Predict the structure of Tf2-1-like SH3-like domain-containing protein.
Amino acid sequence: MYDFNHLTPLDLSPLFLTERVNLDGKKKAEFAKHIHEKARLNIERRTEQYAKHANKGYHKLIFESRDWVWLHMRKERFSAQTHFKFLPRRDGPFQVLERINDNAYKLDLPGEYKISATFNVADLLPYDVLVSQ
């Protein structure tokens, strides 16, 4: 224990007897690299498993310019209006003017709203003409 300077938690892991007895520096370095590579692969594999489980049922919504969407209005957007609970929660349909990125869109809002026309994708729902009629 006193002949080796521990830099990482993997350095504290017990080595196999053949590796502890072997004092060749090159073999010891190769063995440490091998252990680190195995640990890295295991961490990557587990991270992929966690992501797969966490994203189960998630589907990505991407709107294009000129698509029609419903807008879900949150209280934070309309803080100036005191009687928000009497207003409709969803309004639309509105046309998408521009896709800023996959997460933000600019809508064609009428001037009566007096708010920014940029919305997060979480506030948008696709407008289906067949279902609406």
